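User: Hey, my collaborator sent me this sequence without any context and asked if I could get a structure. I don't really work with proteins. Can you help?
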Amino acid sequence: MDLDSALRAQVARATGRAVDDAPVTKLKGDASNRSYYRVGTPPDSYVLMVMPPEGSKRSEEASKGDPPKELPFVNVHRYLERLGVRVPRILRYDEPAGIMVLEDLGDLTFEAALKEIPKEELYGRAVALLARLRARAEREQDPSCLAFTRAFDEDLYDWELHHFREWGLEVWSGKQPTPAERERLDQIFRRIARELAAAPRGFTHRDYQSRNIMVKDGELVVIDFQDALQGPRQYDLVALLRDSYVELERPFVDAMLDRYIAEFAEHSGERIEPRGFKAFFDLLTVQRKLKDAGRFEYIHRVKGNPGFLVSIPASLRYVKAALDTQPELNDLREIVAKYVPELA
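Assistant: No problem. I've predicted the 3D structure and written it out in structure-token form, which is a compact way to encode the shape of the chain:
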């Protein structure tokens, strides 16, 4: 059976009706190894996720441990549904075939919706949703959810910083740091990783940004959550407000951080001290956006996908702005700016 016929057959099994003549369209993918297809014509259509034959249960992001026994998308999906988070409905999952039938959320991403909806409204809703999710997840922890079995620890933060060194500094510049610089970078990266890993952890989406939130019928629908893990409260805020695809001015970012703090207090009863919260947000921005810059170069060189190269400059601008607030990282800036002048 050819792929189109196999996809139509999956929809027929999921819905109980034949769709023999439904058109099949491959959807644009991002950096994932998964492929997505639309069967039918909206609004009478479905999206099918087709997983690679091997390794579909292992995270494509750096993580520790053996591959989980259950597909992470299904596992984390169940937890988020229980928390009341709007996620795409799963109509059928054929594990042997590696094919999942999902509701069609349409094509309106959060990023695209910013052209139609005022950013104050859209970001306000996304930040409020994140605060509610985090507050409830901290109350209702679930050891059966994979997100509670893995974490941003010191080693993972350190690995991601070295991912930047390898791809965003060495490969990108075509130069190697001197042995003394490399030794110093090892020390600085470990120092940053240690400080970040010391923060309290809770449920973290890991990539809560403008292309991983859909807008359907006025609702925000969260997708791409299969790599969720334990991390600091600021992590998903960095992903959203320091998004490499949509640049935001700092006063607006501060307003959204204040909105998160207020929403979190309302849903948890805990009052967060803003100054320290924002300082940690900036430190985490340095780590996350260095990692992103390196990752985008890696995706280009290793996966043959140059589509993310355009987002490297924004990532580096975020790092530069965050470094301006972190004088204790001047030693880092002194070395990396020699190879990545945008950070000078």
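In plain terms: The domain at 3-103 is CATH 3.30.200.20 (Phosphorylase Kinase; domain 1). You can pass these tokens on to your collaborator as they are.
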